[in-house]
Design a protein that fits this description.
Layout lengths: L2 H10 L5 E9 L9 E5 L2 E5 L4 H17 L3 E6 L2 H7 L6 E8 L4 H12 L2 E7 L8 E5 L10 E3 L5 E7 L3 E5 L3 H12 L3 E6 L15 E4 L2 H8 L6 E4 L4 H11 L6 E4 L3 H13 L4 H5 L14 H17 L6
Parallel strand pairs: 10-11, 10-13, 11-12, 13-14
Antiparallel strand pairs: 1-2, 1-5, 2-3, 4-5, 6-7, 6-9, 8-9
């Protein structure tokens, strides 16, 4: 569940709770800035800020914030000795902002807006001398990326930059395509599945949050409007279907295009589509076989290899693994 939405529901219900946010991370730390954890009256409810001693201390601070109705900014130093003793491969510093949830209409409204908005900037005061100070400023979905969270120079505010995770479009809802869709969803991607067979593109076959379209490729592409931030994975039931989709997708703006198949399939498909007029440069960027070379055999293993490559693409700015 979306941690913003869960926090809003808890606050609106008047239940005791606190929201912890990694406001700044320096050096080697368990989690990046912007990571959030929701804490209830008895402990962690959703999310994590890294586990181990960090999380234990932050849960304690969250319980304290609930009791006093005052926020806290907790700085945690993970030096090499401490990290080694705890089995953590980190040696940096994290500043975690802990805020109690309050049933204040303006405050809850910001939480709800953040939960639903595709992009925006949430600004929260570190000190609440006169009650919670939290605001939301919308940003265009294509706004330049920035740090997920940071402290202002004067240390008075936590700034959180929200953006949607990348979208993964999976063509093919057979065994492998379905496994890829489920795994990508679990890894935090927005997932759309397209198949021309209605019984395969049945939303009931996928987790909540995965969009499934029963559609021919041209109709799907018209509906989806593939952008540079998108990834496309082609895993249909046959070479001919794959080639038809690849012909249309290879020249799209998608910065990741992958095709399920062998190296031989790459040669055959590339030759055929080049003869059909598809630019060679567009075909050379297609990842065939898609996924990391981990010896995957089963649909689930193949899904792990593909999503591992998608994560690399997401976290390294699109560079090939």
């Amino acid at each position: 569940m979306n941690v913003w939405r869960a926090a809003a529901e808890l606050a609106r219900a008047g239940s005791s709770g606190a929201l912890a946010t990694v406001a700044r991370a320096r050096g080697s730390t368990p989690v990046p800035s912007g990571t959030k954890m929701l804490v209830g009256p008895t402990g962690r409810l959703l999310g994590t800020v890294g586990g181990g001693c960090v999380e234990a201390d932050i849960i304690g601070a969250a319980l304290g914030a609930q009791a006093t109705h005052r926020p806290a900014l907790v700085t945690h130093h993970l030096n090499a000795d401490l990290a080694g003793d705890l089995g953590l491969s980190c040696g940096g510093t994290v500043d975690v902002f802990v805020e109690p949830l309050v049933a204040d209409e303006a405050y809850v409204s910001v939480l709800e807006t953040a939960a639903a908005a595709p992009a925006g900037l949430v600004k929260t005061a570190v000190g609440w001398e006169h009650g919670p100070v939290k605001s939301f400023e919308p940003l265009p979905p294509d706004a330049p990326p920035g740090e997920p969270a940071t402290l202002t120079r004067d240390g008075r505010f936590v700034l959180e930059r929200l953006s949607l995770p990348p979208r993964v479009i999976v063509f093919g809802a057979g065994h492998v395509g379905t496994a890829i869709a489920r795994t990508a969803h679990a890894a935090g991607f927005r997932v759309v599945v397209v198949d021309d067979r209605p019984d395969f593109a049945d939303p009931a076959r996928f987790p909540e949050g995965v969009t499934a379209y029963a559609s021919e490729v041209d109709d799907a592409l018209a509906r989806l409007s593939i952008a540079a931030a998108d990834a496309v994975v082609i895993a249909t039931r046959g070479h001919r279907n794959d080639a038809v989709i690849l012909e249309r997708v290879a020249t799209s703006q998608a910065s990741y295009v992958g095709l399920l198949g062998s190296h031989r399939k790459r040669v055959v498909v590339t030759k055929g589509l080049t003869q059909a007029g598809v630019p060679r440069a567009a075909l050379e960027r297609v990842r065939v076989p898609v996924g990391l070379a981990i010896g995957a055999v089963t649909p689930e293993e193949i899904a792990v290899s593909v999503v591992a490559e998608l994560i690399t693409w997401r976290r390294t700015g699109g560079r090939r693994a």
